[in-house]
Amino acid sequence: EDKVVQSPLSLVVHEGDTVTLNCSYEVTNFRSLLWYKQEKKAPTFLFMLTSSGIEKKSGRLSSILDKKELFSILNITATQTGDSAVYLCAWAGGTASKLTFGTGTRLQVTL
Amino acid sequence: NAGVTQTPKFRVLKTGQSMTLLCAQDMNHEYMYWYRQDPGMGLRLIHYSVGEGTTAKGEVPDGYNVSRLKKQNFLLGLESAAPSQTSVYFCASSYPYDSLVDIGYTFGSGTRLTVV
Questions:
Q1: 3-class DSSP state for residue A68?
Q2: Cβ A42–B108 below 8 Å, yes or no?
Q3: Which of A33, A86, A88, A98 is the best substitution to test chain B (most B C-beta atoms within 10 A)?
Q4: Beta strand pairing status for B87-94 and B31-38?
Q5: A2 in helix, strand or coil?
Q6: Does A97 touch chain B (CB under 8 A)?
Q7: Do residues B66 and B34 make contact, with C-beta atoms less than 8 angstroms apart?
Q8: How far is A78 from chain B (nearest CA, A)?
Q9: A71 pairs with which residues across the strands?
Q10: Tens of pLDDT along B40-69?
Q11: pLDDT computed for residue A26 by the predictor
């Protein structure tokens, strides 16, 4: 059975800390892995990773994929309270661009 | 630039009632999806469509039906609502996979449904 596992389930850090969120997967017909940020409403797209070892970066956020070990990490440096959200990873495979999501990591950044 | 619009945003149903959730997108996307999100469960795919007139089952299709009569609209129906269908429902749309790079899905803002 295909599965995507995120860890930790929740995390509380102080503003300015650096955090690493993990996503491991055991899936068939893997094509890519995506990261989303979800605040109060709809998930918003962060990154899509297809190739191993190539880091994607956007401001203080970065992500990398390891297709040999079947995991991805999302790093957030110098965290801010606005980074508080649920971070979802999802894999794309098979037909129709379907995404299968993990359960998410809830990040809370405190002052 | 509306993107993906879901209606209604909130709804309370009694067990056994029926309703339809509407999803409309103005980006000319071929693919559309309905997900439900429950606490601790992430998003789970209910049904999806790869084009006008086509639909297919996702991970949790039981109790739901869908229709895609027009390319821009994807309807999700509950024929006889049950408390287990209390959830937040998200619609999304996308291009075919080869065009997904650095785009991902576009999600609607969600419908919070409570069945009592």
A1: coil
A2: yes
A3: A98
A4: antiparallel
A5: coil
A6: yes
A7: yes
A8: 24
A9: A24, A66
A10: 788 999 999 999 999 999 999 999 999 999
A11: 86
